[in-house]
Structure formats: structure tokens, C-alpha cells
Amino acid sequence: MKKEIILGVTGSIAAYKAGDITSGLRRMGMNVTVVMTGEASHFITPLTLQSLSCNKVFSDMFEAPLEWSPVHTSLADKANLVLIAPCSANILGKLANGICDDLLTCTIISTKAKILIAPAMNDNMYKNKFVQENIKRLKESGYEFVGPIKGRLACGREGMGHMAKVEDILEAAKRLLK
């Protein structure tokens, strides 16, 4: 039986790597359902991720379902793992404080599946006291993290906040699914 992965994609320049992550998970035999924030669609299109996942991409919590089932809870219930890659500082803050105001955060808060987060943001944002407190809080709650790493950032400089390598994200997902 295929493992069910929810891939959360948030508003970060690293969202373009969600295509490689989706393809990698599929090669590993996983069924991938993508949930995008509205901000993510500025960096990668739902059509790209739908084509790579072979599944409908979800972004609107209030879209009329084809059958009666609240979207966020039905997605949450079927997941073996929720992987958020890239995960923005915004989503980290929402999760750490129980804020559910979009489909992705509602799905994550509703699931009993393991959660793996691959942060991606500017180094100043990553080092911010509140972001670090949010990460600590999520780790203490059982959320798993992969990265970030030091690398080239969208602003042009090198710094901590670059999303982990796709291979490392895939390996962490595989490890959590055992």
C-alpha cells in the first residue's frame, strides 16, 4: 500500500524545488497530494505540481468538494506524513501559535501524521528571536525539521536559511515513514 504524503508548499523562492521533491517522492512509491498557500502560487504553478504528482492540487479551503467531506480534515486523515517544503517564517509562526487561517495550516493542525518541516527564508528572518522561539516550540511539540543550511539566498548573499538539499529532504521523509 502506498504511503500518503501531503506536501505543503509555502511562499518562498525555494518553492520551485517542490517539483523535484514531488518527483522524488513519487519515485519512492509515494502518493503525493500538494497543498499550496496562496503565496506559493507566485513562485510555482498548481498545474506544474498537479502534473508531477498526478493528483489534484489543493489551495482553497472553501472550494466546493466533489463529495461531502471537509477538505482539510479529509486530507489530514489520509496522510502518513505532512512535509512542508519550503516552509516560510509565516507558516512557522502560525503553526507554533495554533493559527489556522488557510487550508495548509488547518490540515496540519488537524492531522495525526508525522510532520516534517524544511524551512527556507532570509538569514535575518531565520535568526530572528521570534522565529527561533517558534522553531523551538514546534520541535518540543514533536515536529521534525530538516535544514535549513547555509547557502546562497534570494538576496544574493550566503547565509543560514537556504532550504535543505532535495536529497536530504527526501531521505528525512523516508526515515520518518519507516
From TrEMBL:
This is Flavoprotein domain-containing protein. It holds the Pfam family Flavoprotein. GO terms for molecular function: FMN binding; phosphopantothenoylcysteine decarboxylase activity. InterPro entries: Flavin_trans-like, Flavoprotein. Residues 3-174 form the Flavoprotein domain. GO terms for biological process: coenzyme A biosynthetic process. The lineage of its organism: Bacteria, Pseudomonadati, Candidatus Omnitrophota, Candidatus Aquitaenariimonas. One of its GO terms (cellular component) is phosphopantothenoylcysteine decarboxylase complex. Gene3D superfamilies: Flavin prenyltransferase-like.
